[in-house]
Design goal:
Helix content: 40-55%
Order of helices and strands: HHHHHH
Structural class: mainly alpha
């Protein structure tokens, strides 16, 4: 592979957009974080709820990780509902 291990890591961090939401990560070229300021006027609550609960199923090919994977079903549902309400 033509890239060094460090270069490969930086590429992945930039492509997966980790640094867009997490501070302290340095990458040479970063994708921008999603614009959520007006999400309520552009997205439906149902889509936001489905995306937060299972982003890969709601948007195949997304680079969004399963951020709630370690939560119990009840905690996940409560968190998804809270975030959906906040964004809407």
């Amino acid at each position: 592979h033509p890239l060094s291990e460090v270069q490969s890591g930086r590429l992945l961090i930039g492509e997966l957009r980790c640094a867009a939401c997490h501070e302290g990560i340095d990458a040479d070229s970063l994708k921008q974080a999603p614009e959520l300021a007006s999400a309520g006027s552009r997205l439906t609550a149902d889509y936001v709820r489905r995306f937060l609960a299972d982003s890969a199923a709601a948007h195949p090919g997304t680079t969004m990780p399963d951020v709630f994977g370690t939560l119990s079903t009840g905690q996940r549902d409560e968190t998804v509902e809270s975030l959906t309400a906040y964004l809407m």
